Amino acid sequence: MSLLLPGTPRLGLGLAALGRPGYLNLGHGADLPHKSVEGLKAQTWAVLDTAWAAGLRYFDAARSYGRAEAFLGEWQRERGHTGAVLGSKWGYTYVADWQVAAQTHEVKTHDLATLDRQWPETCSALGRATAVYLIHSATLESGVLDNAEVLARLANLAAQGVRVGLSTSGPGQAETLRRALAVRVGGVCPFSAVQATWNLLEPSAGAALGEAHAAGWTVVVKEAVANGRLSARGLTGQADVPPVLADAAQTLGVTPDAVALAAALAQPWANVVLSGASTPEQLRQNLAALTLDASPAPLLRALTQDASTYWATRSGLPWS
User: Fold this and answer.
1) What are phi and psi of 300, to 5 degrees?
2) CA 23 from chain center: how many Å?
């Protein structure tokens, strides 16, 4: 189920790397020369302006992305962009106090109290209800998909017209998504949206995402550039990623991130693919994905990793 008007680019913008001074994208610290609140707000608005001018209309945030929701809400109100389609997530709380070197950046709690606190916080920051509202990184282990109180509250939001769903992370993404597809409240599944990691290194959720799409869900792809590992920055000296991606990008006359994003856009079940750009120039490079027509199959054969290996590497990425 598409969120976007016909003809709108299927690329969206995620604000995980823009709403707070620390994140785990490769080289993130160097992308943010001014890490004050006002400095990040200005940079976020510059990237948002670039996205809007390019026709992008889907924008993704979360309560745990520092001030991302506030930056996004202020931007769309100031610019008068009523056509922006907003998505956000609940379940993590930002606790780093604007410190890049914080020992803990976010705390996960998938309980009713957190949902009841964070939904109005999100609406206040954005200035309106979101079109999409997701459980942030739902897992089978968190128990959130078996929490009757949480599911009832989400079903109530769905009845009000919000597309509720979940985002997924970790090697068990497919299992978590299939469990969510089977959830029923009053005989009806309250969920109609999923945001999942899919990229050339970690495509293991692809079949389950196809099932969600076939069930009428909106499917949003995150981390298509693997937190920078599938960018020129990430490929330099990275022994576990063969040069095939850089070679493909050179042949096509684009940067590797554009090829990685194009591979995700080529998936028939992908309604929106998120760019995680931190700068206007990164976003402009990402936008080249919209014009590429290249099969991802050879790259998938060359680059796909075991899911557990991929997620172990991701967990070890430093915040900067």
Assistant:
1) -60, -40
2) 13
Count the residues in the chain: 320
Q: And the tokens for 291?
A: 């014009």
Q: In sequence order, what DSSP letters do the residues of 46-103 get, joined into one string?
A: HHHHHHHHTT--EEE--TTSTTHHHHHHHHHHHHT-TT-EEEEEESEEE-STT-TT-S
In whole angstroms, give the CA distance from residue 125 to residue 110: 20
Q: Is the dihedral of CA 180, 195, 310, 111 positive or negative?
A: negative
> Which amino acid is it at 277?
A
Query: What's the token pair of residue 11?
Result: 């690329």
Q: Say which residue the tokens 């990685």 belong to.
A: 260
Domains and CATH numbers, the chain: 11-315 (3.20.20.100)
Instruction: State both tokens at 30.
Output: 């160097």
Average pLDDT over residues 247-275: 96
Confirm whether pTM is higher than 0.90. yes
Terminal Cα-to-Cα distance of the chain (whole angstroms):
36
